[in-house]
Amino acid sequence: MKMDAIHPMWRAALAGLAMASALLSGAVAAAEEVPLQTPQSLQAPALTPGVTWKTVPTQTISANGISFAYRELGQHNGGTPVVFLVHLAAVLDNWDPRIMDGIAAKRHVIAFDNRGVGASAGSPSNSIEQMADDAITFIQAKGLDQVDLFGFSMGGMIAQEMVLKQPQLIRKMILAGTGPAGGEGISTVAGVANYDILRGLLTGQDPKQYLFFTRTPNGIEAGKAFLTRLNERTDNRDTEISVAAYIAQLQALSAWGQKQPADLSVVKQAVLVVNGDHDRMVPTTNTHDLARRLPHSTAIIYPDAGHGGIFQFHTDFVPSALAFLAQ
Description:
The protein has eleven helices and eight strands. By secondary structure, it is an alpha/beta fold. The longest helix is centred in the first third of the chain and has 16 residues, at 8-23. It starts with 7 loop residues before the first helix and ends with a helix.
Protein backbone atom coordinates (compact mmCIF):
# COMPACT_ATOMS: atom_id res chain seq x y z
CA MET A 1 0.00 0.00 0.00
CA LYS A 2 1.34 3.46 -0.88
CA MET A 3 1.93 5.78 2.08
CA ASP A 4 -0.05 8.64 0.47
CA ALA A 5 -3.10 6.37 0.25
CA ILE A 6 -3.24 5.88 4.01
CA HIS A 7 -5.62 7.95 6.15
CA PRO A 8 -3.73 10.92 7.69
CA MET A 9 -4.37 9.72 11.23
CA TRP A 10 -3.01 6.29 10.33
CA ARG A 11 0.10 7.88 8.77
CA ALA A 12 0.62 9.83 11.98
CA ALA A 13 0.14 6.72 14.07
CA LEU A 14 2.58 4.65 12.06
CA ALA A 15 5.15 7.39 12.42
CA GLY A 16 4.38 7.55 16.12
CA LEU A 17 4.71 3.83 16.82
CA ALA A 18 8.44 4.09 17.35
CA MET A 19 7.90 7.06 19.66
CA ALA A 20 5.17 5.21 21.52
CA SER A 21 7.37 2.18 22.13
CA ALA A 22 9.95 4.43 23.74
CA LEU A 23 7.33 6.11 25.88
CA LEU A 24 5.74 2.94 27.16
CA SER A 25 7.45 0.83 29.77
CA GLY A 26 4.81 -1.84 30.22
CA ALA A 27 1.68 -3.40 28.84
CA VAL A 28 -1.42 -1.32 28.29
CA ALA A 29 -3.63 -1.23 31.37
CA ALA A 30 -7.05 -2.80 30.89
CA ALA A 31 -10.16 -0.90 31.87
CA GLU A 32 -11.34 -1.77 35.38
CA GLU A 33 -14.87 -3.00 36.01
CA VAL A 34 -16.85 -0.23 37.73
CA PRO A 35 -20.33 0.01 39.22
CA LEU A 36 -22.99 1.17 36.78
CA GLN A 37 -25.00 4.31 37.27
CA THR A 38 -27.99 4.28 34.95
CA PRO A 39 -28.60 7.69 33.35
CA GLN A 40 -32.07 9.16 33.29
CA SER A 41 -33.87 9.36 29.97
CA LEU A 42 -34.24 13.02 29.01
CA GLN A 43 -35.47 14.75 25.88
CA ALA A 44 -32.78 16.45 23.81
CA PRO A 45 -33.37 20.10 22.82
CA ALA A 46 -34.09 21.09 19.26
CA LEU A 47 -31.12 21.83 17.04
CA THR A 48 -30.05 25.44 16.61
CA PRO A 49 -32.00 26.93 13.69
CA GLY A 50 -30.10 28.42 10.77
CA VAL A 51 -26.36 27.99 11.15
CA THR A 52 -25.32 24.58 12.52
CA TRP A 53 -22.06 22.76 13.17
CA LYS A 54 -22.32 21.47 9.61
CA THR A 55 -22.34 24.97 8.11
CA VAL A 56 -20.76 27.33 10.67
CA PRO A 57 -17.72 29.08 9.17
CA THR A 58 -14.23 28.60 10.54
CA GLN A 59 -12.71 31.83 11.81
CA THR A 60 -9.26 32.81 13.06
CA ILE A 61 -7.97 35.04 15.82
CA SER A 62 -4.34 35.93 16.56
CA ALA A 63 -2.72 36.10 19.99
CA ASN A 64 0.93 35.95 21.05
CA GLY A 65 1.91 35.43 17.42
CA ILE A 66 -0.38 32.42 17.01
CA SER A 67 -3.36 32.27 14.66
CA PHE A 68 -6.04 30.10 16.29
CA ALA A 69 -8.75 28.53 14.13
CA TYR A 70 -12.16 28.30 15.78
CA ARG A 71 -15.89 27.91 15.23
CA GLU A 72 -18.63 29.60 17.23
CA LEU A 73 -22.35 28.92 17.61
CA GLY A 74 -25.24 30.18 19.73
CA GLN A 75 -23.90 33.67 20.42
CA HIS A 76 -27.50 34.91 20.61
CA ASN A 77 -28.07 32.79 23.72
CA GLY A 78 -25.77 35.01 25.77
CA GLY A 79 -24.61 33.84 29.17
CA THR A 80 -21.28 32.22 29.97
CA PRO A 81 -19.68 30.76 26.83
CA VAL A 82 -18.82 27.05 26.76
CA VAL A 83 -15.30 26.48 25.42
CA PHE A 84 -14.66 22.97 24.03
CA LEU A 85 -11.24 21.33 24.50
CA VAL A 86 -10.61 18.48 22.11
CA HIS A 87 -9.10 14.98 22.34
CA LEU A 88 -5.85 13.41 21.13
CA ALA A 89 -5.25 13.82 17.36
CA ALA A 90 -8.53 15.74 16.93
CA VAL A 91 -9.43 18.84 14.96
CA LEU A 92 -12.67 20.82 14.74
CA ASP A 93 -14.38 18.21 12.57
CA ASN A 94 -13.97 15.55 15.27
CA TRP A 95 -16.68 17.09 17.46
CA ASP A 96 -20.03 15.29 17.26
CA PRO A 97 -22.51 17.62 15.47
CA ARG A 98 -25.35 16.42 17.72
CA ILE A 99 -23.48 17.55 20.81
CA MET A 100 -22.34 20.84 19.30
CA ASP A 101 -25.78 21.75 17.93
CA GLY A 102 -27.48 20.43 21.06
CA ILE A 103 -25.43 22.54 23.48
CA ALA A 104 -25.59 25.56 21.12
CA ALA A 105 -29.40 25.39 21.20
CA LYS A 106 -29.20 26.91 24.69
CA ARG A 107 -25.62 28.11 25.18
CA HIS A 108 -22.90 30.11 23.44
CA VAL A 109 -20.45 27.48 22.15
CA ILE A 110 -16.83 27.94 21.02
CA ALA A 111 -14.42 25.25 19.82
CA PHE A 112 -10.86 25.83 18.62
CA ASP A 113 -7.82 24.00 17.30
CA ASN A 114 -4.84 23.70 19.62
CA ARG A 115 -1.67 25.51 18.58
CA GLY A 116 -0.04 23.78 15.62
CA VAL A 117 -3.06 21.48 15.13
CA GLY A 118 -5.56 21.56 12.28
CA ALA A 119 -5.85 25.06 10.85
CA SER A 120 -4.16 26.75 13.85
CA ALA A 121 -0.65 28.05 13.26
CA GLY A 122 2.49 27.64 15.37
CA SER A 123 4.53 24.76 16.70
CA PRO A 124 2.44 22.04 18.41
CA SER A 125 2.67 21.88 22.19
CA ASN A 126 4.20 18.78 23.76
CA SER A 127 2.92 19.33 27.29
CA ILE A 128 -0.57 19.52 28.80
CA GLU A 129 0.56 22.56 30.80
CA GLN A 130 1.50 24.44 27.61
CA MET A 131 -1.79 23.46 25.97
CA ALA A 132 -3.57 24.94 29.00
CA ASP A 133 -1.60 28.18 28.61
CA ASP A 134 -2.52 28.27 24.91
CA ALA A 135 -6.20 27.77 25.71
CA ILE A 136 -6.09 30.60 28.24
CA THR A 137 -4.39 32.78 25.61
CA PHE A 138 -7.17 31.99 23.12
CA ILE A 139 -9.94 32.74 25.65
CA GLN A 140 -8.34 36.04 26.61
CA ALA A 141 -7.89 36.95 22.94
CA LYS A 142 -11.64 36.46 22.52
CA GLY A 143 -12.16 39.01 25.29
CA LEU A 144 -13.95 36.56 27.59
CA ASP A 145 -13.85 37.24 31.33
CA GLN A 146 -15.27 33.88 32.37
CA VAL A 147 -16.10 30.62 30.61
CA ASP A 148 -17.42 27.12 31.17
CA LEU A 149 -15.08 24.36 30.00
CA PHE A 150 -16.05 21.17 28.19
CA GLY A 151 -12.99 18.94 28.07
CA PHE A 152 -13.06 15.54 26.40
CA SER A 153 -10.19 13.07 27.01
CA MET A 154 -6.95 15.06 26.59
CA GLY A 155 -9.12 18.16 26.65
CA GLY A 156 -10.28 17.22 30.15
CA MET A 157 -6.67 17.13 31.27
CA ILE A 158 -6.10 20.57 29.76
CA ALA A 159 -9.20 21.83 31.61
CA GLN A 160 -7.81 20.61 34.94
CA GLU A 161 -4.57 22.51 34.39
CA MET A 162 -6.52 25.62 33.38
CA VAL A 163 -8.68 25.69 36.49
CA LEU A 164 -5.60 25.35 38.69
CA LYS A 165 -3.75 28.10 36.79
CA GLN A 166 -6.63 30.57 36.38
CA PRO A 167 -9.51 29.60 38.70
CA GLN A 168 -11.23 32.96 38.32
CA LEU A 169 -11.55 32.36 34.56
CA ILE A 170 -13.62 29.17 34.96
CA ARG A 171 -17.25 29.03 36.13
CA LYS A 172 -18.06 25.32 35.62
CA MET A 173 -16.45 22.29 33.97
CA ILE A 174 -17.62 19.18 32.15
CA LEU A 175 -14.88 16.51 32.08
CA ALA A 176 -15.63 13.52 29.83
CA GLY A 177 -13.52 10.41 29.22
CA THR A 178 -10.61 11.77 31.21
CA GLY A 179 -8.69 11.43 34.47
CA PRO A 180 -6.32 13.16 36.87
CA ALA A 181 -2.59 13.64 36.42
CA GLY A 182 -0.82 10.37 37.14
CA GLY A 183 -4.08 8.47 36.70
CA GLU A 184 -4.27 4.78 35.84
CA GLY A 185 -3.33 4.03 32.23
CA ILE A 186 -2.91 7.66 31.14
CA SER A 187 0.83 7.36 30.48
CA THR A 188 0.08 4.39 28.19
CA VAL A 189 -2.67 6.01 26.11
CA ALA A 190 -0.23 6.10 23.19
CA GLY A 191 -0.02 2.31 23.15
CA VAL A 192 -3.80 1.91 23.11
CA ALA A 193 -4.25 4.55 20.42
CA ASN A 194 -1.52 3.25 18.11
CA TYR A 195 -2.64 -0.36 18.51
CA ASP A 196 -6.22 0.48 17.53
CA ILE A 197 -5.14 2.79 14.72
CA LEU A 198 -3.07 -0.07 13.30
CA ARG A 199 -5.99 -2.44 13.84
CA GLY A 200 -8.23 -0.02 11.95
CA LEU A 201 -5.73 0.13 9.10
CA LEU A 202 -5.61 -3.65 8.84
CA THR A 203 -9.40 -4.06 8.95
CA GLY A 204 -10.31 -1.06 6.81
CA GLN A 205 -12.21 0.64 9.63
CA ASP A 206 -11.91 4.05 11.22
CA PRO A 207 -9.82 3.55 14.40
CA LYS A 208 -12.38 5.50 16.44
CA GLN A 209 -14.70 2.51 16.04
CA TYR A 210 -12.29 0.59 18.27
CA LEU A 211 -11.00 3.45 20.43
CA PHE A 212 -14.30 5.06 21.40
CA PHE A 213 -16.86 2.23 21.41
CA THR A 214 -17.32 -1.23 22.87
CA ARG A 215 -17.29 -4.28 20.62
CA THR A 216 -20.83 -5.20 21.63
CA PRO A 217 -23.67 -4.89 19.08
CA ASN A 218 -24.82 -1.63 20.70
CA GLY A 219 -21.31 -0.20 20.73
CA ILE A 220 -20.59 -1.16 17.12
CA GLU A 221 -23.83 0.40 15.86
CA ALA A 222 -23.25 3.54 17.94
CA GLY A 223 -19.77 3.85 16.45
CA LYS A 224 -21.05 3.60 12.90
CA ALA A 225 -23.68 6.27 13.58
CA PHE A 226 -21.09 8.56 15.18
CA LEU A 227 -18.68 8.23 12.24
CA THR A 228 -21.50 9.02 9.83
CA ARG A 229 -22.29 12.19 11.78
CA LEU A 230 -18.65 13.28 11.67
CA ASN A 231 -18.85 13.30 7.87
CA GLU A 232 -21.98 15.44 7.65
CA ARG A 233 -19.89 18.55 7.03
CA THR A 234 -18.60 18.33 3.47
CA ASP A 235 -17.48 21.91 2.76
CA ASN A 236 -14.63 23.82 4.38
CA ARG A 237 -13.51 20.95 6.55
CA ASP A 238 -10.56 21.34 8.90
CA THR A 239 -7.01 20.22 8.18
CA GLU A 240 -6.07 16.78 9.57
CA ILE A 241 -3.50 16.63 12.36
CA SER A 242 0.13 16.38 11.24
CA VAL A 243 2.57 13.65 12.23
CA ALA A 244 4.62 16.16 14.25
CA ALA A 245 1.57 17.36 16.19
CA TYR A 246 0.42 13.81 16.91
CA ILE A 247 3.83 12.83 18.29
CA ALA A 248 3.94 16.02 20.39
CA GLN A 249 0.57 15.10 21.91
CA LEU A 250 1.77 11.57 22.69
CA GLN A 251 4.72 13.09 24.54
CA ALA A 252 2.37 15.38 26.47
CA LEU A 253 0.11 12.51 27.52
CA SER A 254 3.02 10.32 28.58
CA ALA A 255 4.51 13.06 30.75
CA TRP A 256 1.16 14.05 32.26
CA GLY A 257 0.35 10.43 33.04
CA GLN A 258 3.59 10.14 35.02
CA LYS A 259 3.10 13.46 36.82
CA GLN A 260 2.35 13.62 40.53
CA PRO A 261 -1.40 14.05 41.12
CA ALA A 262 -2.53 17.62 41.71
CA ASP A 263 -4.52 18.65 44.78
CA LEU A 264 -7.95 18.91 43.19
CA SER A 265 -9.60 19.62 46.54
CA VAL A 266 -8.84 23.30 45.90
CA VAL A 267 -11.19 23.34 42.89
CA LYS A 268 -14.30 25.22 44.01
CA GLN A 269 -16.16 24.99 40.70
CA ALA A 270 -19.01 22.57 40.08
CA VAL A 271 -17.84 19.74 37.82
CA LEU A 272 -19.75 17.13 35.82
CA VAL A 273 -17.63 14.02 35.15
CA VAL A 274 -18.85 11.61 32.48
CA ASN A 275 -17.67 8.38 30.87
CA GLY A 276 -18.69 5.00 29.58
CA ASP A 277 -18.33 2.00 31.86
CA HIS A 278 -15.70 0.31 29.64
CA ASP A 279 -13.26 3.03 28.57
CA ARG A 280 -10.09 1.44 27.14
CA MET A 281 -8.23 4.69 26.44
CA VAL A 282 -8.57 6.38 29.83
CA PRO A 283 -9.83 3.59 32.10
CA THR A 284 -13.16 4.41 33.74
CA THR A 285 -11.66 4.09 37.21
CA ASN A 286 -10.14 7.53 36.52
CA THR A 287 -13.62 9.05 36.23
CA HIS A 288 -14.51 7.72 39.67
CA ASP A 289 -11.16 8.99 40.95
CA LEU A 290 -11.93 12.48 39.63
CA ALA A 291 -15.37 12.42 41.24
CA ARG A 292 -13.74 11.60 44.59
CA ARG A 293 -11.02 14.23 44.25
CA LEU A 294 -13.23 17.09 43.09
CA PRO A 295 -15.29 18.38 46.05
CA HIS A 296 -18.24 19.68 43.97
CA SER A 297 -18.63 16.95 41.36
CA THR A 298 -21.45 14.91 39.86
CA ALA A 299 -20.77 11.72 37.90
CA ILE A 300 -22.58 10.01 35.02
CA ILE A 301 -21.42 6.57 33.86
CA TYR A 302 -23.09 5.21 30.73
CA PRO A 303 -23.63 1.42 30.45
CA ASP A 304 -22.20 -0.69 27.62
CA ALA A 305 -20.15 2.30 26.48
CA GLY A 306 -16.51 3.16 26.01
CA HIS A 307 -14.38 6.29 25.72
CA GLY A 308 -17.00 7.86 23.46
CA GLY A 309 -19.89 7.33 25.85
CA ILE A 310 -21.04 10.94 25.44
CA PHE A 311 -21.33 10.38 21.68
CA GLN A 312 -23.13 7.05 22.02
CA PHE A 313 -25.60 8.54 24.54
CA HIS A 314 -25.76 12.04 23.09
CA THR A 315 -29.56 12.18 23.40
CA ASP A 316 -29.19 11.83 27.18
CA PHE A 317 -25.90 13.63 27.61
CA VAL A 318 -26.87 16.91 25.91
CA PRO A 319 -29.87 17.68 28.16
CA SER A 320 -27.92 16.47 31.20
CA ALA A 321 -25.07 18.83 30.32
CA LEU A 322 -27.46 21.73 29.70
CA ALA A 323 -29.20 21.13 33.02
CA PHE A 324 -25.83 21.12 34.80
CA LEU A 325 -24.73 24.34 33.10
CA ALA A 326 -28.03 26.04 33.92
CA GLN A 327 -27.84 25.33 37.67
